[in-house]
């Protein structure tokens, strides 16, 4: 069905053609609201007036975080693997959301403390058994950080052959709101305190303890002298985690491949922030699924000038919000591709 | 899969059991946000801790309105049938939205000016070739109004045998925002002017002209002396249309059948308002899909204490918003039925 627009000289020309096509669909002008904005974006991503995006897949990146040793989480690191096992069993939150929206789910071990047994829906891309404790030392070496970014990119390069063109990004990682807050602070300059929330649950010692630990981690090094994109890459290395780095690498590759990237919550958005800091054009490929209940998320969305399509007060992670946004992406795709045109004279 | 709870004495007990089940799913407490509220509602509708709702279907009710003779619409009545034909051809807005969300679509001719040729997805339930002009006379006779309500109920009674348990309600009817504004004003007492918007497009003579015509129609009769539910039924008869009456009858029957009713935009919500006014318990079966761009819709949602699940700035009608909400209903169903429980000790 795809009518490639190789003859269209510029993105601007394609944008105008897409907008005209959207306006000519059989409906009052603008009456499909946000779906019309999505359709325009999808057409630009696919480089086509009649995009055929293909299958949707949720990639769930799982890894552990050394900073959990500081008591910044409600749950121990072992819970990362427990939840990952539920994903493979098909009974986690992401599985029910993906099943409701026609997506399949693949789990990536990016660096769990303990590996999982082989499974048809598991990719073993372990960089290390968890990051180092970012309170006291860099979470990763430079080599590990580069490996994680490259592994993410490689996963995406293989998706086209499976017919996948819509990728939802989710994660599991006890401690990864801590890593995200630190990375987001380093990249955006937004005050660290405002970027810190309870994540999956406030630690036993309270949110103030989490704030104190993260302030100390942030003060361990000075990134202020580095310019972007170097600062984003160094923040990623300093604070982790392997799942965030792998997501950033995968998002970057997906944008290059002309695939639709659906960004989930606070951690997934932090990965998007890193990817955009490394290459600004990645932003064009990103569909922001929802605004989560984690307080820092809204700030990052604002920073990225992102208007999510859903508002469901989710804070589970795993890619649940990304999955729920897939039918909206799909409806926008079909609207652009398969809906009738207006009769003549047009509906005003 | 359905584990019927016939032994549960009261709705309150079921509600407590459902809430406990939702809280025990493998996720931080409350972390699926609005999906958890939906799951509670679905469990109560189905009367089950493990609801198996069955297939989803969009019913699109189409009819014409005599009040279009007053120049209150941007488009002539003939457009109702044009759009209905696109629905049957599978290329209208509702078709792409339904296809994106796993629902099928059935069109009901509730009273088009001119009938459509037979079609596998068309139900001929024509009451009359359009309503009378409500500016000057009652839109329907009492018999016609009763026929439309009964026809809607009968359509729903046949859905169980098709395995349908989720019903999205959409409509097509040039002039039906006028009918809806008048009915909504009569039932709720909200000022008529605030309930009037452009619908599919402001009329050539302007929105002020539409307001003047509807004010005159409202003043033609006095409904203030009638109490609910008689007032709602008389408002329906006075202002039409056949599609709104048929939707109200269908929603009432669906609530009795324990089916999930997904309410779309302003007109669909007006039908819900009528159905709830006729029997308050109908409210429990209603899932409100979205808040449309039509200004009166938000007021009706507030009146019904309804918090829609989507906010996409839609104003197309046809059931498009209802279709897009189906995956959220489905995810809530699967969460309740198929998600794992917490390990012990639980995630806080």
Structure report:
The structure is a homodimer of 348-residue chains. Chain A has 348 residues and is α/β, with parallel strands linked by helices. Chain A is 45% helix and 10% strand. Chain A is built from twelve helices and six strands. Chain A has helices spanning 11-24, 33-46, 78-89, 93-99, 142-157, 176-188, 207-219, 230-239, 242-257, 266-278, 295-303, 320-338; strands at 55-63, 104-111, 122-124, 164-172, 260-263, 286-288. In chain A, strands 3-2-1-4-5-6 form a six-stranded parallel β-sheet, with helices on both faces. In chain A, strand 5, helix 10 (266-278) and strand 6 (286-288) form a beta-alpha-beta unit. In chain A, helix 5 crosses helix 9 and helix 10 runs parallel beside helix 11 (295-303). The two termini of chain A are 29 Å apart. Mean pLDDT of chain A is 95; it is low at 1-8. At the A-B interface, helix 2, helix 3, helix 4 and helix 12 of A face helix 2, helix 3, helix 4 and helix 12 of B.
Features:
45% helix; homodimer; 348 residues; alpha/beta; six-stranded parallel sheet; 12 helices; disordered N terminus
